[in-house]
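Quick one: structure tokens for this chain, please?
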Amino acid sequence: MELQNKTVIVTGASSGIGLEIVKMLATIGAKVALAARSMDKLEKVATALAVDGATAIIVPTDVTREADCQALVQATQDAFGRIDVLVNNAGFAPPASIQETTEDIWDTTLDVCLKGVYLMTRAALPVMLDQAEGGTVVNISSVAGKHGFENRSAYCAAKWGVHGFTEALRAELDGRNIHFHLICPAAVATPWWDTINNSQPDEVMARMVQPEEVAEAVRWTLTQPDRLQIDEVVIKARRSPWDVS
């Protein structure tokens, strides 16, 4: 796909992986709809993008609310007339043992990481299906959707669900010109580590997957010829970032 002048929605767009995806796609000429819960953060991103001449709108969105997801899709249509790509990136991943995983932690993790993907995809698909060119859904998953990790039971359950959901829709919409991709990074050097009070040393962060590298994987996936089916891209450091041997 040629991304210049294509319309892309990115959730979780105000920081980390989502921010880098927005910056990369905007740089190559995509029209971007940025979604996140914080209007203040979105406005700062939009201001920076405007300096570089990017075409973008911001839409405060809670992906766990159906009305918000529908409003984001409508705002994107109103601004750009179409939706070519949806990048489901919003996430929530507090580490907790099973005994520490309260019902609230469980529900919030699955609501953001799995229900949000469902709600956004369900909202955007009618627009894509009505377009002759169809559309593409990129789900930012994780290696936690392929392997179990201690103190991550809720997050792993959500990401395994994202994988199942993606594969099911790929089968359900086969032949309808709708493409589905999974991007599965391991530990990524984002502000998330600070939000869980688990700041990592600079040298460890430097050895992690960088958010711009995940963004590059998204760009690469989207720009491959339509005759190719890119089901899943796994990105990880060759050695554990915590391995100092």
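Residues 103-129 form the longest helix (27 residues).
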